[in-house]
Amino acid sequence: xxxxxxxxxxxxxxxxxxxxxxxxxxxxxxxxxxxxxxxxxxxxxxxxxxxxxxxxxxxxxxxxxxxxxxxxxxxxxxxxxxxxxxxxxxxxxxxxxxxxxxxxxxxxxxxxxxxxxxxxxxxxxxxxxxxxxxxxxxxxxxxxxxxxxxxxxxxxxxxxxxx
Amino acid sequence: xxxxxxxxxxxxxxxxxxxxxxxxxxxxxxxxxxxxxxxxxxxxxxxxxxxxxxxxxxxxxxxxxxxxxxxxxxxxxxxxxxxxxxxxxxxxxxxxxxxxxxxxxxxxxxxxxxxxxxxxxxxxxxxxxxxxxxxxxxxxxxxxxxxxxxxxxxxxxxxxxxxxxxxxxxxxxxxxxxxxxxxxxxxxxxxxxxxxxxxxxxxxxxxxxxxxxxxxxxxxxxxxxxxxxxxxxxxxxxxxxxxxxxxxxxxxxxxxxxxxxxxxxxxxxxxxxxxxxxxxxxxxxxxxxxxxxxxxxxxxxxxxxxxxxxxxxxxxxxxxxxxxxxxxxxxxxxxxxxxxxxxxxxxxxxxxxxxxxxxxxxxxxxxxxxxxxxxxxxxxxxxxxxxxxxxxxxxxxxxxxxxxxxxxxxxxxxxxxxxxxxxxx
Lengths: 163, 425
Fold this sequence. Notes:
Strand order of the largest sheet of chain A: 1-2-3-9-7
Radius of gyration of chain A: 15 Å
Number of strands of chain B: 20
Number of strands of chain A: 12
Largest sheet of chain A: 5 strands, antiparallel
Radius of gyration of chain B: 30 Å
Largest sheet of chain B: 8 strands, antiparallel
Distance between the termini of chain A: 10 Å
Strand content of chain B: 35-45%
Helix content of chain B: under 10%
Oligomer: heterodimer
Strand content of chain A: 35-45%
Order of helices and strands of chain A: HEEEEEEEEEEEE
């Protein structure tokens, strides 16, 4: 499901579609940037490819919004999220999470609570690949292994999610 | 006594107070945030990490150390950095380590002092930093970019004889690179007031130390660029002990309403006296040598031998002392700085209140026991300041009361200056 852009959303209520709790104009998103919503165990996670200074254009910036739909606290582990670049020959290469201070850790989110984080991923060769995928299987417990979101890049912009 | 005492404010105490929690976020992206960490607001597994509500001052405003010229540039370059002189500025650039920044970036600590007595502009954003690497294809050089997500590294003035330190991060365009073996920094364009300068680059091949927790600009929660040395209001506070002659015989004294009984004391019953007072003068240099401010005075003295005397038909008699209070504004000009001193000419204008004491035993229940005279105050004075440090001075002054020309005063003062030498150009 695609989340529209161009509007400023209020903070995320726990029971509705997720979106990054920032005005998209603040994020300097391209007008056709997209967001994907996935159910991952207790979590509903939206993934939004955005751009924002001072992140280099050659890096991938993903804004995650998430809520816990269970009655118990749930684990949220962004170190378990795998972001891979799809190269022209069909092979995949992992993108490295930019975490210079080592602050990204396995965390816990309360029942009905929501949060958001914006993370930068750096391609191995310093060049953003034409397409990339975000595998959410490791973000929490008991996740459907096909919880993957893929995007492809048009020119210098990110657009059109692949399903 | 009239309500002048509450007006005496110790303004200097406010100088060390910083606005609480001044952290402003520059980016929501993990790794770029200054005011929060990953998980802030939702992670229940860890206690939230927030900026301190009351960050301490980076350095005490009252214990500033003046820069001793040559300190930063006397030593020869070593593997971690070196010092250069650019006009009045003396700058040492040292490579430091910080685990919080990408390995391929360089973190440089700039320590700089102003060898002159006047402010000079410094533009650290003009420092050109080059990383030299040994690639498989041969040596390569890459200009590094200043990491300044909040655009806070701006041209600022460093006061005369002041010194400061800033730690900046310079990034490679390519992420994931190892630390560059050698980093060179060219400071030729950092001092804007010295004109074009050709300064030999400083090259560092090893970190000379560790960056402090709240030092690297763009990463720290507490101190923005320029904190402790950047823009400051040229404000100075002067506390002066004054001895002045007062002709109490001029004018009349009245009681204050709503007493049921009023009397008038003609000044003829009083003579000349000496008032010993404490002045608090707070001033701001407005432009060039011109300054303006506020004047508060609280003093007292003993009445001359003619007191005590009966002052009216009710039998109320004078006591033995009087109060001398004043409040007003002042304006002045800094005339010159001969030989480490400074001469100022100043005029104070306002309201002066004189209140001889009355013998309360002679006051009855229905009568006022106050005798007050309010006078206009116009008070020129000449001040000679001697600098103890660029931020502290002592002064001696001579003055007179223009509307009562027979009254003069001498004073000795101690002054604290928020900007060194009041930031005089």
